[in-house]
Amino acid sequence: MMKRRYCGLVLTMALMLSACSGIGSERLSYGVLSNNEAEVPAAGGTITYGYSSPFQGLFEPAFYEGEDDYQVLEFITEAMFRVNDDLTTVPGIASWQESDDHTVFTFRIRPGVRWHNGDELTVEDWKFALETIASPEYTGSRYYSVEMITGVEAYHKGKAKEISGIKVIDPYTLRITMNSVRVNALDNLWPYPMNKKVYSGIAVKDMPDSDPVRKHPIGIGPFEVTNIQPGQLVEMKAFEDYYQGKPLLDGVKYKVFDDKEIVNLLDKDVIDIATAPRDAYASLKQLDRVDILQSPELSYEYIGFKFGSWDQETQKIVMDNPKFADKRLRQAMYYALDREGIINQYSYGLGSLIETPVPSSSWAKIPDSEINTYPYSPERAKALLNDAGYVDKDGDGFREDPKGAPFVIHYDAMTGSTTAEARTRAILQNWRDVGLDVRLNGGQLKDLNAFYEAVENDDPSVELFNGVWGLASDPDPSGLWREIDLWNYPRFSSKRNEELIREGVGIKSYDKEYRKNVYYEWQKLVNDEVPMIFFAERINITAVNKRLQNVRVNSMSNIIDPQTWWIKEGNE
């Protein structure tokens, strides 16, 4: 249901995923810490969930941007649908009926679901969330989650006061009409309600900085916020009127910590659960009080080229930067990277090479035999650069551009693990070894928020950047790869790219084999054009204090049904 950006080299899986019935459970790896069947879960106690970067504090699903805030949202909010471990979408708070022509969905939500302030959830709250994202004043990145609804475009452009495709039947029934047949309409539809009464009187443009988002967020999830120390701490208590029953824990603290201290903090019971950086893996495995859970990530690390900028007026990308126009340069930079060596040395081997943005677990992933795998080959990189006219004309060891002018590329990356700086130096050295003068932009790594602010706002100094995207399980690239997607950070598109993305969700794609072939062709296009260098898929590591029971992880998250977590006596 959503795609999200991640915190550079220190990743967690905090992503609400869309359905994909083609992925079987046998393709996924899960970890679980469950109580002995003979034991009765004990109620009470508070645990601390650790996070390694200051959070932004956008605690409303419609506005959050990164995993830093999403981790909190997983405790306090809930979507209308649930996603199983096998990545299939199933009814949750809402069930649905789909019309024979696949354009009309009638949703029924369960009565009696309460917001943290006591209000009952109705479909008016869901309708309000859809209208918020469709509003002309909305500046977030989730318009793609409502654009399929009939009448949204007119509403978004200020030409209509209502969204014609949304109709409230009664407090618990909502009918949504789609503007066309899309095989994954339900998967991409925005699933999170917003409390209409709480936001009454607040303009959409003012919502991101409003008290309901920043200071007093409320949700329908198992825990409610009681205290926020901006950027550092969120305290939550059990929501007694949670519709699935009061949580076993009394509360949860979401606390920012220095990830270099994670081993000591877990050993001393300062934190109970956290996503662990790879450089702490070996040390954490030695702790008697800690269990390590591993799961695959539906995400990919990439190095993106900046092809242009975002036009706020037209809400489209503009490919106005010619620096990386020659794909031979981009391909050469791909070949020049010793990706496998870097993963082994700086990520402790916890990852695997990828060549497209479709995860290896997906039914839509093209076999590597049908695409270029860009193996480490400095000689091939040099040959491509020579062919493209990038040669060293002044004998200083670095190549000039085809016009003979100095050619310098600025590279941006994020702080994270203890190996982040050394890893960055290794990447830059790979390129320097083939004669490319690639320099760290500003001379240092950026923290999470500064990095994404520069990348998203198309800071002119950002030319090449190392990021990570979390993926939805459905292979539709919408949200990240079209010309109308704000999160298309490289600002790359093409006519064929747009055609294939549309074709992948069209009526012909109800034939799964047809749809798979569409995505095969799209991956071939991306693999050849190299709008970004696909670096690796990762293994997510979650460290859990043994006193904390019933923690379960999968490729989506390590915060799954936290209302069932409990503290085992004798492990305090």
Automatic annotation (TrEMBL):
Residues 94-480 form the Solute-binding protein family domain. Coiled coil: none annotated. Pfam families: SBP_bac_5. Keywords: Signal, Transport. GO terms for molecular function: peptide transmembrane transporter activity. Residues 1-21 form the signal peptide. One of its GO terms (biological process) is peptide transport. One of its GO terms (cellular component) is ATP-binding cassette (ABC) transporter complex. PANTHER family: OLIGOPEPTIDE-BINDING PROTEIN APPA, PERIPLASMIC BINDING COMPONENT OF ABC TRANSPORTER. NCBIfam families: Opp4A. Belongs to the bacterial solute-binding protein 5 family. This is Peptide ABC transporter substrate-binding protein.
